[in-house]
Every structure is written in structure tokens, then in C-alpha cells.
Amino acid sequence: MCKMDYPRPCGCKGRRTCLHCEAEFGIERSDFYTSFQNSESFVYCPRCNKIYPGWDWEKILSEHADTPMHGGTRGEEYPGVYIDLDFLSETEETNLLHGLDELPWDVSQSGRRKQNFGPKTNFKKTRLRSAQFAGFPRVSEFVQRRFEQVPLLATFQTIEQCSLEYAPERGASIDPHIDDCWIWGERIVTVNLLSDSVLTMSPYRACPDGKTKYNLHFLERYRDHLLGELMDEKAIAACENRVVRIPMPRRSLLVLYGPPRYQWEHAVLREDIKDRRVCLAYREFTPMYLEGGSEFSQSEDIFLRAKQFWDQQPAIVAS
Known about the structure:
GO molecular function: demethylase activity; oxidoreductase activity
Largest sheet: 7 strands, mixed
CATH topology of the largest domain: Jelly Rolls
Strand content: 25-35%
Order of helices and strands: HHEEHEEHEEEEEHEEEEHEEHEEHE
Number of strands: 18
Cofactor: Fe(2+)
Strand order of the largest sheet: 3-2-1-14-13-16-11
Protein name: Isopenicillin N synthase-like Fe(2+) 2OG dioxygenase domain-containing protein
CATH architecture of the largest domain: Sandwich
Oligomer: single chain
């Protein structure tokens, strides 16, 4: 009998599933793809920074070349998204993947594999410790250095770098969620490798009992420091039945901040993984853990470690 609350051999637990455990244990997957079809769908165009009706992101992007653009359809604003379509070159991508694949991969939930480089965090108990964190692999150093050329990331201080591998043969995906708001800061940074994919955004809905998820209540402690102005109640209500599809083309950089960070959940649907995809996810600390913040004494040592880059041998990979 499969115990859903405990990790299974494939790495999944709870309601998270992959093709392997669904077949072995007869688990019924959460079908977000079908449920999202009942919503009003839009696609974000990274060339004009607006959203347009539709589901197929490749079709929407191809329409940008039309005269007038997008067949004359008037796009809507969807602030809080930055995309650099040509962040990495093909050679840089090849060298980066070669170096990462020389390091161990760990199984993760929902059919993914991962490499975590960062401190240990306990989101439930809001505890932070350095553990074995010794910095980042040198093969990826140039990526962090390039962030300095992006105005939006000028003050970004990488604290965690996580490699995530999505493979179609495992049914890899990630369910709708908001990244933890106690420890991870406003800018959610992703560098996409190997194949195109798409991020599907859906409005966050509070629990019926009024409790917040994702440690969102910590947001009130640093709301005044946000880069992006959040949506008011009227704007949120108008998006109640919407999903927004954000393209993640191969070798692109994606940054989420403001409303997409805190008021929308993001997901990678199984149906959108056509080939092996690897993404590098980067996280910063919340203002509480930055210099001058109330919790800086807990993070000062971690900031020193985060300035280090090590060669492949010997390599320390945080579990």
C-alpha cells in the first residue's frame, strides 16, 4: 500500500505524482491542464510585453510579426514580467549543461531531478542554516555575473541556485504554487535550457478558512520594499477566471516580480514538456535577511558563502 504522505521511490509524495508512481500505485493525478481549459486563457508576448487571448504561445508569438501586430488585437497589460529571449548563446548553453551533467542529480517530486546549491531552509518552522552550503559550481558563475547587466537585477544577490530537470518520459511537471515568502525575495529568476516550455499562471485563491499559504503573511513585513505595485481587489476579481501563459523559450531569462510573484500561482504543466528541459532557478533573500534587516545575523555567513564558486572537483552538492 502506498503511503501518500511519505516519499515514494520516484521522489514524489503527497499529491505530487509522476508517470512512474501513477502506474505503480494507481494514483490519479491532478489534471490542471484540463481544469485550465475552462478558464479564459491569455499568452504573454515578450516582444511587446502584453497579453493576448489564446493558449498556444508559439502562435501568439508568431502573430507579433503581423502588420498590424497580432492581427490588430489590442493587448492588455500584465506587469511584473521580464524576458530576455537571447540571454545565452548556443555555445554557452552547451558548456553549461556539460558542466552541470558532470555533477550528481537527485530525484525530486513530480518526475523532476534537481541539483540544489544553497542553505537549508525549513519553510514550516521558518528556520535557516548554512549546513553544507559552500557556494556555487564555477561552470555557472558567468550566468550570475551576467545578471549584473540586467537593470532589473542590478541589486540581486543570489542565495540559492537550483538546477531542475524536466523529462517527458517521467511526466515531469510542477503544480501551481507561489514560492515561499518568508525567505525568498521578490524576484524569481529562471534561465531556460535545452528546450522551449511555458509557465502557466493562475490567480491565487486564499483558503476557505482564511489561512494564508506559502508564508504569504510575511509579505506585510516588507511590502514597502516591493519593486512592483500589487493588484487591488477590483483588479484581482477581474482575473478570477483567467490563466496567463508565459513563454520560456530555450536560452531565455525570465524574471517574475510584483503581482505575478505574490498574487498568481505558477505551474509547469506536464503537457508542455516535449523534450528534456533544464532550468536554473535563482532566489534572493527577503528584505528581513538583507543587510540592515531584522534577521541579518542569521544570514550574514550565508552571504559570504554565496560569493564562492568552486571547481568541479571536489564538488559539494547540498542535499
